[in-house]
UniProtKB/TrEMBL annotation:
The lineage of its organism: Bacteria, Pseudomonadati, Bacteroidota, Flavobacteriia, Flavobacteriales. NCBIfam families: TIGR03643 family protein. It holds the Pfam family DUF2805. This is TIGR03643 family protein. It comes from Flavobacterium sangjuense.
Amino acid sequence: MLITAKTNLDDIAIDRIIEMAWEDRTPFDAIKIQFGLAEADVKALMKRELKFSSYKFWRKRVENCKTKHLAKRVTGIDRFKCNRQRAISNNKISKR
């Protein structure tokens, strides 16, 4: 299913999805909860939005990252973001 057929995302949402996809601690399930995009949709969005070399680098990184998939995560990791990151709720940065 194509992303454009599934939902209309504005530039801010696309930027946030890309940011979340690059973060090692943010699993694809968190992106699905916030934006309704499955892992395949996120991969398609990244391929569309990034330069091809950046996409290839990201894909290689994601394949080797155990924290991007909840089933592969170590039990000690129980949050979606770094504890030094600003508080984020419902895709909005609370302190601006």
